[in-house]
User: Which sequence fits this backbone?
């Protein structure tokens, strides 16, 4: 006689994992790798729509790096990230700390509100609202946009508008990033690492600022508010020079790549990871934990019911609770044991349920309530209840 072979656990073959990753790899190839390669190739060529493209090597990069307009655009673009950076690394952690200390429901409400700020954010809509300040009858805060008309005040005005327009979304993303760090086992080091990553992310996103500048000033007046993305748009689409435009895009990609490498090194060095921990039970007013306790000894919930922590172990189970025992009780004196149908042995609970009518409950109402089998089976007499046969 041989023992049955235990079932073997299903092992996922490596080929299945690669097969499931194919759609993601194809998407990355089509939307990221091929466009990047094509942009780099165009940066080595001159010409465009009106002229035939010719290979010129590094000439576009040399001309671009020697142009003061590129460095001015790079400096102005970086200056746009200063105030959002302060919001992300100062206001974000403080607000996250306040929500973390406020409790469960304020924290959940804060997450919902901040998530809505991320979802509804639209740079073009923000820029369109600020354009109302350029109207003759404008009033209020929107009149700040009047500074965009002068070359001397346009850069500072643009920085303030970008800071005001992105405050909500930057603050929301920073809080969402800092909250898990504050709820970990070592919030200090984790918060510091998250702060570095958030700062790098803010700079990376700020380097790609495009919509606000295009709608409000189109890079003017006198190229005072031109950004890297605006310079790329100006070369490629306004002047139809794909080579210089691709060169700006490639240099911007190099800067973003460096920021990404730094972020990866920080995350790997700090061993940053996301760990799911069980929910910590909150204390009750009497100092005890709200975590469910095991049911009173010898009792189990009836079918379809869950055990409630409001019952103390010493209290009677009440309706809906049944006594638990691995064996049915012995038949009362003078009563024949319950019989099983032919070919179908009775389980302990079925035997117990059949034997219940021969048991007598005490006259005590409390005992009657505790011993009443509302649903399920009483497999032994509860304490204080008589087990004498019914008369």
Assistant:
């Amino acid at each position: 006689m041989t023992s049955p072979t235990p079932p073997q656990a299903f092992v996922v073959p490596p080929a299945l994992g690669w097969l499931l990753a194919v759609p993601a790899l194809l998407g990355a190839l089509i939307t990221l790798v091929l466009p990047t390669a094509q942009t780099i190739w165009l940066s080595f060529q001159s010409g465009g729509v009106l002229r035939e493209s010719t290979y010129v090597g590094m000439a576009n990069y040399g001309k671009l790096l020697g142009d003061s307009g590129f460095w001015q655009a790079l400096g102005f673009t970086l200056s746009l990230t200063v105030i959002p950076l302060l919001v992300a690394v100062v206001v974000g952690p403080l607000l996250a700390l306040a929500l973390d200390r406020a409790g469960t429901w304020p924290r959940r409400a804060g997450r919902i509100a901040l998530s809505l700020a991320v979802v509804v954010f639209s740079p073009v809509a923000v820029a369109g609202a600020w354009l109302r300040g350029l109207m003759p009858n404008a009033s209020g805060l929107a009149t700040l946009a009047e500074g965009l008309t002068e070359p001397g005040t346009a850069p500072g005005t643009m920085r303030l508008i970008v800071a005001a327009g992105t405050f909500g979304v930057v603050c929301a993303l920073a809080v969402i990033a800092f909250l898990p760090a504050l709820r970990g086992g070592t919030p200090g080091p984790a918060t510091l690492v998250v702060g570095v990553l958030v700062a790098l992310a803010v700079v990376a996103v700020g380097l790609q600022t495009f919509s606000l500048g295009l709608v409000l000033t189109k890079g003017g007046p006198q190229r005072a508010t031109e950004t890297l993305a605006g310079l790329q748009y100006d070369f490629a689409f306004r002047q139809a020079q794909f080579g210089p435009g691709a060169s700006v895009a490639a240099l911007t990609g190099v800067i973003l790549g460096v920021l990404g490498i730094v972020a990866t090194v920080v995350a790997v060095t700090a061993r940053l990871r996301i760990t799911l921990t069980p929910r910590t039970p909150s204390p009750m007013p009497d100092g005890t934990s709200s975590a469910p306790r095991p049911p009173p000894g010898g009792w189990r919930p009836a079918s379809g019911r869950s055990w409630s922590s409001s019952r103390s172990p010493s209290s009677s189970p009440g309706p809906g609770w049944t006594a638990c025992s691995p064996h049915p009780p012995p038949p009362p004196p003078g009563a024949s044991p319950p019989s099983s149908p032919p070919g179908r042995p009775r389980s302990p609970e079925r035997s117990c349920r059949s034997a219940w009518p021969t048991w007598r409950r005490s006259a005590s109402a409390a005992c009657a309530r505790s011993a009443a089998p509302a649903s399920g089976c009483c497999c032994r007499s509860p304490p204080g209840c008589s087990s004498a046969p019914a008369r």
The chain has 13 helices and four strands. The beta strands are 45-46, 54-55, 299-301, 321-323. Residues 290-329, 340-391 have pLDDT under 50 and may be disordered. The longest strand covers residues 299-301.
